[in-house]
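The instructor's notes for this session suggest beginning with a concrete chain rather than abstract definitions. Hand out the sequence below and ask the class to guess, before any prediction is shown, which regions might be ordered.
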Amino acid sequence: MPQLPLLGACTIINDEMESIMPSRFVQIATVVPVAARHISAMAVLIVAMLCVVDRWANAGDVKPTTLRVLTYNIHHGEGTDGKVDLPRIAAAIRAANADLVALQEVDVRVQRTANVDQAVELANATEMNMVFHGNIELQGGQYGNAILSRFPITASRNVVLPNDVDGEQRGVLIASVTIPELASPLEFYCTHFDHRRPDALRVASAKVVAKLAVESKTELKILAGDLNDKLDSRTIQAIQQSWTLANSKPAPTIPVGKPQYQIDFVLTSPASAWRVDRVIVLDETVASDHRPLLAEVTLLSP
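After discussion, reveal the predicted structure:
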């Protein structure tokens, strides 16, 4: 009896579902005795079973995609000691070993910070990809949000948030990030809401960001930033219409010396796609007036 070619049998069996034997073996079976055909059929079935077991084993070897997401209001690099020290900020980011970083209050060529492009400096110091967008023109430069990423950033855009006559213009920066394990890009949002009372502008901003998630054609999304409101606020309630908080219990980030309130958050969308492994507040008490907040999130179905 001719020897069955086992190499490639798994692929053939998957492609030929109409018969017990794959088509490439049919001609061989017709020229051998009946008993031999039964043996051949049994051999094919055994190969098929081994293929299924092999697929299960390989599926177990596939590691889920886990991302470390950091949000950090850097206060234009000025620490609680009054010193502008970008290397100190960069050290905190490197220590977090983050994959995606949302930065708020970033100066780019602003006079008060020696006309330094802080976004570029931090990208170079952390060896990460970067995109920046200013929301306010300030002292000859721009002031706004920046995103750092270990992965390539293929596109970005900035959406202006609601404002009034007396307020600082705020925005949400959105970057398309290509992660090798994912079939399609992920959208990473970085934002900074208005800080004043009452909360009308924050609530309005939260509704805009919630709507952006609904209207996005990208399935997987992560949002991080300084929302300038607490967990039980109307702002957080509004944004949760389409975003899910990484933590349900407060993880205080301000005041930086002895934090009592959480106003910095990481959120995901859709909720069914993500598992939150942990949320921690980093022990950096001098570099800025906020503590950095780090969330580890795992994609459930890449």
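Then share the key points. Confidence is low (pLDDT under 50) at residues 1-37, 51-60. Helices lie at 9-15, 23-29, 34-61, 86-96, 118-126, 200-215, 234-239.
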